[in-house]
Amino acid sequence: MLWDKLRRVKLFRTLRFRLASTFLALLAIVLALVGVVGTTTLRSLLETQSEQILREELGAMRGYLHFDQGRPYWFADPSDPEEEATIGRLKTVYVIADANGNPAQGSSPDPALKQLFDPNEIRFELQQIERTKEPFIKTFVAKDKVPYQVISGAMVDPDHGSKWYVAEGRSLANDQSLLRRFRRNFLIFLPIALVVCALVSWYSAGKALTALHSVETAAQEITGSNLGLQIPKRGADDELDRLIDSFNAMSGRLKASFEQIRQFSTDVSHELRTPLTAIQGQLEVALFTATRKEQLQEAVENALQDVERLSNLVRALLLLSQSESGQIPMNKGVLDLGRIVDDLVEQFQIPAEAHEVKLTHTTRSSVFCEVDRTQIERVVTNLLTNAIKYTPAGGWVRVCAETLGHEVRLVVEDSGVGIPQDHLPHIFDRFYRVPDPNPEKGLGLGLSFVAAIVRAHGGEIRVQSKIGEGSRFEVILPAGSVRMPSETPAMA
What we know:
By secondary structure, the protein is an alpha+beta fold. It contains 12 helices and 14 strands.
């Protein structure tokens, strides 16, 4: 229940809070692991150090012990205060006992360490030392909760050959104090570090998201009058800069699209107004001035021509809508593209002759592919129309269809005026028209329809052009389910 309430708080749902809290949580986990690992490592180091010190002190104890008539005694140079001090330190916690476990010498700072003098324990330790050939180490806790670590070993009286038990101990109070200080300092450092890191992560997350805020602000400021609004880059070349690049590119595309739509609306309005005005004028003239049947018939015929022009324009707009939504109707079948091109070239001979352009078709064999006849005819028709329209008198237009493995290629090339290089990347865009003084130029829809139809067939269209030398349009289409000649089974 509490978690659901917290999730509804707006602050906890912000990206800045999530970034900062994630970083802080990871840091807390890392610091906790550092604390655990550090404590464990320090404890291990202290234990190793304590064991090393005990081994050294046991060796020193053996060096200062001598035997007289089978009894051990401490020997040091009375003139050397350092040796006296060393023996004094060694006598803080020590035990010397015979092989039967009977203590001969010993001392301890706390009565709770009386286990050191237990004969049974001493004999047990001697057995372990004999078996392992290593000193025996154990730990005791005094009444004041101070731990002591004791190491025991064996030594032999060189005069009598008897075995003796020797043990040396040290307090672990300093080691425990050091470990407690480490834990205390870490527990003090941990919350301070988390608070500082929380502030730093909150500030860093805010700085990192500044670019996102600029994108948000820019998106809110975009209107129809400033669609091309651009956000300056930060220069870091990171994810946020790439987001800014994407936003700027999207903004540029929006501006270009709206400008195309605006220009298209203007062109459509002009194209619609002209035939409508002509129809209205013709009908008004016929209504008020026609006195004979022939005059009325001529007016109606002229009006029908303009209505046909309007109908063609509406069909073009419908096809444009279908191409934009990917709903071009497709009814594919295996057809001979060479025959289709041949028929269309034959139909275009008359307009080609009217423009004094030589139109030829060089395909000599069948080119089968799986296409929609209506749509592929529209592709060829648009390409031929443009080629003839933009080829000066005395020029030529050539069409060729051929098979390329599992693909077919349709080429329409001309010796026309050509297309400027800076316009080539855009000629297949919707509503795009290359600047041209020709008053009969279209709405810039033909090549966009061609590209949409080719893409709907799974193909691609390429163009090469030079000013004054002509253009070459190349359409590559997959053959589809058509069996290539190499795949045709041999006849029995």
